[in-house]
C-alpha cells in the first residue's frame, strides 16, 4: 500500500510518502501558501511521487492534517452565522453559564458571541425534558424568521432547541424549513452536533460549527477536486481533533468543528508510535513549527482525551479532542519590546511570507529563527538542504536594532530571544502537567517540528526531564503521525441512571445501538470486519455536580467496579473523591475504530555520510562561541553517539546538543539525548 501524509502548517507544508511493499519512506517539505493551501499540498505530493518514480494513480490513500479551522478559531475569522431558536433559547449562547474567569475583576469584559442578537431569532415551539411536545412549532413564524436571518447577512444558520437531545423533532423540522426557504445557506441542528445535555455547551458548539463549515467545506471539496484533476484516485482522509482519521465526507458539515485541532493532533499520534518503538510510554510531545508550538502529554502509552475544550476566546466546544496546549512560539515568532521595556516573543509570527528577516523575502522584524542564525546554530548555507538560503548579515542587522533598544550586545540579545521563547514553552508544559499532577521526571520530551530540536534539550534541562527523544524526521513528524492514525468514530447518548440500582437493560440497549452505528460507519468507510473495534465508556458524576468523568468500561462489567474506578479517576483529575457519595451515570460512549494492520512505518532512508565539519556556535554554557562539530544526522548509525557541544543537521531540522549532554542513536534511528553524569 502506498500512502501520503500531508501536514499543512503556517510556514511549511510537510509531505511523507510510505510504500509498504517496497519498504520506502520519502519526505518533502515545501513553503505553505496560506492563500491557497491546496496548491502547496499538490506541489509537495507531485515532487514526492516524481522522486519515487510513481504516478498519481499509484497512491492508495492520502492522509491530511489541516490548520484551516485552527487558524479561523485563533484569528476569529468565522463565517457570519445566525441562530434560529425555539421558545426561550434565543439568548442562551450570550447568557452562557455566568462563570467569570476573573471573579474579582469588576470590569470583566463580556464573553464573545459568534452570532450577535440581530442574527438570533426565536420562534414558538418547546419540547419537555421527557421529550413530549409542550408547545407546537410555529412554522409560519419560522419561515419569516429564516428570511430575516438571511437579510441580516447570515451565511449559515444554527438551529437550537431545549431538550432536543431527547426529541429532535422541532430542530429537524426547522432545518427542513431552512432548506426550503434558502438555496445555499448552510444549516446545522444542535441535536446533530451533540446528543448530550447542558444546553449552553451544545448550542455554542452548534454555532461554532455553523461559523466554520462554510469555510472548511469548500476547502475540503476543492482539495478533493484538485487531487482528482491531478490524477489521484486515492481516498482522502482528514485527522480529527480526537487523533483519529475520518473520510473527507465525514469531515464536513455537521463534523466540521471536529477539525479545530486537526493539525496538532497528528503530532501526538506520531509521538505515541515513535516512542513506543523505543520502549517509552510517558511523553511530553513538543511540536515546534514556524508559527506555533503544540504540546501534549502521553501517560502510559495513551494520549489524554477529553470531550470538552475551551476556544481561545473562551467559548466552550463539545467535541472529542486530545489535550493539546498550543502557544504562539515558533521559528517565525517575532521578538519585540513592550511598553515597560521588557523583551517579548510572539504570538505574532512572520509566517511563510515574508518570513524571518534572514530568508530575504521582505521580513523586517527579528524572529527566533534570526536569533538562531546570529548564534550560528543554523547552517549558514541554508535550510532544506540548501534550498532555502539564509542571510546572516540581515539577521544580525535586525537583531542588532533590538539589542540597541535593550542595551545588550548582539549575541546576548539573540540568546535572550531564544530564552524568552523557551520560557513560554516551559510554562505551557508545566500547565499541561499540572492538570493531572504529572511528575515530569518520569517523562521523556519528544522534540519535533522544524524548530523542536533547537530547544528540546534546553527545555528538558529547565524542567528536569531526564531525556529527550528526537525522531528520525522531526520536521515531518505530524505528517508521519498521520500515516499511523486510525479511523475513529466517537458516538454518545445521554443517560440518567443510578449505578447503585442500574437499569441494565436500558444501558445495554443504548450501548448496543451506538455500537451498531459505529460498526456501520466503519463498514461504510470500507474497513474490513476483522479490523473493526468498539471501545465502551460511561460518564459518571457525583449527584448534584454539573460535569462528569469518562470511565472506560468493558461490556457486561459489574457497575460496582465501574464506580470504584470513577472514584479513582476523580481523585487523580480533581485531587479529591468521595467514596460512598451517591453517583449517577449521565452518558454512554462508544468509540468505533479501525485496528492498525500491524505494519510499522519503514525505517528512515540513510543517505548522509561523514561529517559536515565544524563552526563556531554560541552556547550559554560556554559564555561565548565554541568550536563545535557539525554532524549530518544520517551519517549516524544505531549505537553511534555524539557528545555535546554539537550541532546535528538534516534536511528538515537542526538539533542542538549543548555541553554536558550526549546523543545516542537507537535501533529505530531515534536519537536519545541525556545529560552526561560525572
Brief descriptors of the model:
globular, 33 strands, 678 residues, 5-oxoprolinase (ATP-hydrolyzing) activity, 6-stranded mixed sheet, alpha+beta
How do the helices and strands line up, and which of them pair or pack?
Blueprint: E1 2-8, E2 12-19, E3 24-31, H1 37-52, E4 61-65, H2 68-75, E5 81-85, H3 92-95, E6 120-122, E7 126-127, E8 133-135, H4 139-151, E9 156-160, H5 169-181, E10 186-189, H6 190-193, H7 199-229, E11 235-239, E12 245-247, H8 262-277, E13 283-288, E14 293-299, E15 302-303, E16 305-310, E17 316-322, E18 324-327, E19 333-337, E20 343-349, H9 368-374, H10 392-406, H11 410-434, E21 444-448, H12 452-463, E22 467-470, H13 477-482, E23 488-497, H14 504-524, E24 532-542, E25 549-553, H15 559-574, E26 583-594, E27 611-619, E28 624-632, E29 641-643, E30 646-650, E31 653-657, E32 661-665, E33 671-675
Oligomeric state as shown: single chain
The profile of the biggest β sheet is: 9 strands, mixed
- Give the percentage of residues in beta strands: 25-35%
Structural class: alpha+beta
Alpha carbon gyration radius: 26 Å
Low-pLDDT stretches? none
Number of helices: 15
What does the overall shape look like?
A: globular
